[in-house]
Amino acid sequence: MSKVFKDGAIHLSIRSDYKKATWFCRVKVPGAVGYVYRSTKTTDEHAAYAFADNLYNQMLVRSLTGESPNAKRLLPVLEAYIRHLEPDSDRQSVHNKILLIQRIMPFLRPKTADDVDTSLISSIIGELTRLSSKQRLSPNTVRRISSDLKHFLTWSVDQGYLTAVPRFPKVSGDKSRRTHFDAADWRKFVRHLREFIKTENKAVRRDRLMLVNYVLILGNTGIRVGEARTLKWRDVRQVDNEAGQQPTIVLSVTGKTGMREVVARNAVKGGDKPGHRTAGAVPSGAE
Fold it and tell me: What is the dihedral of CA 98, 101, 102, 108, to 10 degrees?
């Protein structure tokens, strides 16, 4: 069964290979190349015509405003992106990207590639804010979402689904962000670490001691986490200074910027006992 409306611009039909008598529509607008096919997802003829007529009007507006009426829908692009990520889904960062796309998929279902602009990105963030338990997102969360969305959009451009990545809205700063550690904060933190080590369980004490030393090395040298992972004893050397002065500890580290030498900060004079100088040092930028 099929029916034609608006001089052939709207064509409704029922496919014989479907158990349920669902109406499908084929729509064409003046100035557009080809047809647009959609399932109306209804068995009611009047509802099917209303769906097709609404689609026709949307396409007509796109055509009159210079946009492509046959713009590719975003839903297949989102599904293709998820399939692209799935082989590496055991990585947490990739898993988070998949979860984000799955969460915004219902919102983007009716959208097309031509709808992707700064306004749509703002709407996505607004929708995620609405879905959040506290009805708000921290600036850091918005930045992470924006980063994952940029990854998706960049991939879409590379695959030919989009022509360009739109400008992202500016993220407002977090007025409640904690201030940097000062010398008093650092000393308090170090004192807590010393108490943190004190436990009767030898295995737990060993693990905590390693963690404390790891944190103190990061704090007193400023090296990156990736640089600390590859640090070995042979990368650490002591450089003698003038008489009466503490020797300087130099670390040779390798990270994303290549190999570099880092000078550890010496202890604050009169602060800690000689055996705990590293623990008493104040990291760079703390004063």
Answer: -170
Question: From CA 193, how far away is CA 217, in angstroms rounded?
Answer: 13
Tokens of 12: 């409704």
Beta-bridged to residue 27, according to DSSP, are 10, 36
Q: In what order do the strands lie in the sheet with 2-5?
A: 2-5, 10-14, 23-27, 36-39
Other C-beta atoms closer than 10 Å to the C-beta of 216 total 20
Q: How many angstroms separate the CA atoms of 156 and 116, rounded?
A: 11
Residue 158: closest CA among 80, 104, 75, 92 = 80
Q: What percent of the chain shows pLDDT beyond 90? A: 38
Q: Please state, in angstroms and rounded to a whole number, the distance separating the CA atoms of residues 5 and 179.
A: 66
Average pLDDT over residues 203-211: 93
Q: Where are the alpha helices (DSSP H) in the chain?
A: 45-64, 74-85, 92-108, 118-131, 139-158, 183-197, 202-221, 225-229, 277-280
